[in-house]
Specification:
The protein has 211 residues and is mostly helical. It has two domains: 2-74, 3-Layer(aba) Sandwich (Glutaredoxin), CATH 3.40.30.10; 85-194, Up-down Bundle (Glutathione S-transferase Yfyf (Class Pi), Chain A, domain 2), CATH 1.20.1050. It has helices at 10-22, 37-43, 63-74, 85-114, 122-145, 147-152, 156-171, 182-192, 195-199, and strands at residues 2-4, 27-29, 51-53, 59-61. The protein has a four-stranded mixed β-sheet, with helices on one face. Helix 1 (10-22) links the parallel strand 1 and strand 2 (27-29). Helix 1 packs parallel to helix 3, helix 4 (85-114) runs parallel beside helix 7 and helix 7 packs across helix 8.
Length: 211
């Protein structure tokens, strides 16, 4: 399998880290949807990151669908999801919050970086900012309510929350202020120091270098 996309994308990075933790062998090809658009287009005409090229050549998209496919196909001995239905429900909520924050962060970054300032729509920016902060606040509360789970388990919810937090702090630290979300920051700092996270650092033109 081949994973296509830059690791400055939190969606690509969550897939790479998850596959590493699941013990799934894959090749990573760092193609950009911007600077190498035509090369990416030859792999996937939709030019959506992440893209997974399966062993038979079929192309899959969307980070969550890719991870769902991999766990189903590989019949793995381990999973990044809890077996208990209620615990999985809680993880689905936490993951949904993390991905909502991520989606809105990407929208705001694109608005800031790609649209001329005179054309930026202030009410829309205010709405998206509110959605980001609401998602982060709710995710912070989820971690508080389930600290034992988030402290020890490498689950999809924890992985994605940590990846998304790193992205927010790289791109929107002036809006998503770390002091307001101490548990998220602690979770991210802990996981960022693990081998899988260190192997797939968020390098690329979309994320500033970390001091």
């Amino acid at each position: 399998m081949r994973l296509i996309g830059m690791l400055d994308s939190p969606y690509v990075r969550r897939v790479a880290i998850s596959l590493e933790l699941l013990g799934v062998r894959f090749e990573h090809e760092a193609l950009s949807v911007f600077s190498t658009f035509e090369q990416f287009q030859r792999v996937n005409p939709v030019v959506k990151a992440p893209t997974l090229v399966c062993d038979d050549g079929e192309v899959l998209m969307d980070s969550s669908l890719i991870l769902q496919f991999v766990e189903a196909k590989m019949a793995l001995a381990r999973s990044l999801w809890p077996a208990d239905a209620l615990e999985r429900q809680h993880d689905f909520r936490a993951l949904g919050l993390a991905l909502a924050a991520c989606d809105k962060c990407v929208q705001l970054v694109y608005e800031r970086n790609l649209r001329p300032q005179a054309a930026q729509h202030a009410p829309w920016i205010e709405r998206v900012t509110g959605q980001i902060l609401a998602a982060c606040a709710a995710l912070e509360q989820e971690i508080k309510n389930r600290q034992n789970v988030f402290a020890h388990a490498q689950t999809q919810a924890a992985i994605t929350a940590a990846v998304v937090w790193r992205f927010t702090q790289s791109m929107l630290a002036d809006i998503v202020r770390a002091e307001n979300y101490p548990l998220l920051a602690m979770l991210s700092n802990r996981l960022e120091n693990t081998p899988a996270f260190q192997k797939y650092l968020p390098v690329g033109p979309g994320v500033p270098a970390r001091n």
